[in-house]
Amino acid sequence: MDKQEIIRLLKAKGEDRTQLLKRSRDVKEKEVGRKVYFRGLIEFSNICSKDCLYCGIRKSNEKVVRYNATDKEILEACRFAWENRFASLVLQSGEISSPMFVKRVDNLLKKIKQLSNNELGITLSCGEQTRETYLRWFESGAHRFLLRIESSNPELYYKIHPNNKTHSFEKRIEALHFLKETGYQVGTGVMVGLPFQTYEDLANDLLFFKKIDIDMCGMGPYIEHEDTPLYEYRNLLMPKQERFNLTLNMIAVLRLLMPDINIAAATALQAIDPVGREKALAVGANIIMPNLTPCNYRKEYQLYEDKPCLDEDAELCRNCLEARIELAGSEIGYEEWGDSKHFFKRVASEKLLKL
Ligand code: SAH
């Protein structure tokens, strides 16, 4: 598929769109199967050193009460995941790289592995770190990492981030390379429907994913947040429903481009449509992240407006997801890590090349 063809598909409406979504679903079922894998999401801290112009927990947002969940709270959430046969977790936080933070995550990883007899798979989503930190965390048991590039166009990147050393586009790209070299299954992604974003940008994002050969992807609609600088440009946005539809088109085209990767049904989809994530699963996605963040912290982890599941506890969340996934015609891969098939093929071919 070349760029023009991708742009055409991203714009697809009506019967063309139905065909696209159907093709993507077929490719998904053939390449990665019908199962949906759970990643219990623990948003363990909202303390952040970055000032991304779209994000509700950016450093300068003084309305946010900053928290650090205690080890006990985090481990309880992990135990819940394990006892309920979720095979994997995502530990997500703001971006901090202090020695104390690095050590804390390291300890947590070891404790989680211990409490679950090494059974829980762990994905980290804790931002840009040094090569040493990535290695240390990998050695302590994390085996997947999510770091969205947010936009692969440097010009757009600097429209949605401050243009300074802390928010360097090159550093983010470099971090993705470090992660891959370390041996992680690497996931990235973008927000869809950002102000100033074009169809060409989105097509380039997909080609970028292909070029750097990612194993996993998470893409969600951009949703404005009142207490962020980007809110000023809300008049430039397409209606939410269009951002939603475009995100599904992005997922579908990505599934065609990279048939064997894992694609997450982003939580932000549900901020627009109550069954948004299920719709993504019915199209090309095969991963879902039930929220296991302790309830008292959820309202302080509002990356965007209308973030769902603010007052649900973990048990409720699981029941609700289960029913929903069955509705979407899929089955839950309990007790299976559901790793990226693409990753194993990639590693095997890298080994062959070295011989
Ligand atoms: N700090 C971590 C992860 C936490 S934020 C990191 O840098 O990787 C997780 C994701 O939420 C971000 O990568 C971003 O794509 C998304 N996000 C942030 N603000 C958003 C908004 N206003 N609308 C939609 N998604 C948003």
Provide a descriptive summary of the structure in words:
This protein is an alpha/beta fold and 355 residues long. Strands 1, 2, 3, 4, 5, 6, 7, 8, 9 and 10 form a ten-stranded parallel β-sheet that branches. It has a single domain (3-349), classed as TIM Barrel. Helix 3 (71-83) packs parallel to helix 4 and helix 9 (240-257) runs parallel beside helix 11 (276-283). It has helices at residues 3-10, 14-31, 71-83, 99-115, 131-139, 154-160, 169-182, 199-212, 240-257, 268-272, 276-283, 295-298, 314-327, 341-354; strands spanning 35-45, 88-93, 121-125, 142-146, 185-188, 191-192, 216-221, 262-265, 287-288, 331-332. The mean pLDDT is 95. Strand 3 (121-125), helix 5 and strand 4 form a beta-alpha-beta unit. It contains 14 helices and ten strands. Bound molecules: S-adenosyl-L-homocysteine. S-adenosyl-L-homocysteine (SAH) is lined by residues 54-55, 92, 94-95, 125, 127, 147-148, 150, 191, 220, 222-223, 225, 268, 303-304.
How would you summarize this macromolecular structure in one to three sentences?
With 355 residues, the protein is α/β, with parallel strands linked by helices.
